[in-house]
Amino acid sequence: MALIDCPDCGRRVSPRAPSCPNCGAPITATGHPADRRLVTPGLLGRLTAVLGAWLVFPWVARLLAFLAGIAMLIVMFTSAR
C-alpha cells in the first residue's frame, strides 16, 4: 500500500489511518484509487432489485390477466341458462 503525505506536517502516513500519528491531523484518502469502489453493496442491491422487478412484473401482469379471464368465463357460464 502506498503512503501519502500528511496535509499538516508532511510526514508519510497510511491512507487508512484516521489521523496522523505525528501531529494528529485527520487523514482523508481521497486521492488513493484503491480505496474508491465503482460498485458498492448498496448500488448492487438496487440494481438487482430493479432488474428483478423488470423481469418479474410482466409475468405478474400476465397472471392477473389470466385470472381475470378465468373469473369472467366462470361468471358467463354460471349466469347463462
TrEMBL record:
<protein>
    <submittedName>
        <fullName>Zinc ribbon protein</fullName>
    </submittedName>
</protein>
<feature type="transmembrane region" description="Helical">
    <location>
        <begin position="63"/>
        <end position="80"/>
    </location>
</feature>
<keyword id="KW-0812">Transmembrane</keyword>
<keyword id="KW-0472">Membrane</keyword>
<dbReference type="InterPro" id="IPR059113">
    <property type="entry name" value="Znf_ribbon"/>
</dbReference>
<keyword id="KW-1133">Transmembrane helix</keyword>
<feature type="domain" description="Putative zinc-ribbon">
    <location>
        <begin position="4"/>
        <end position="27"/>
    </location>
</feature>
<dbReference type="Pfam" id="PF13248">
    <property type="entry name" value="Zn_ribbon_3"/>
</dbReference>
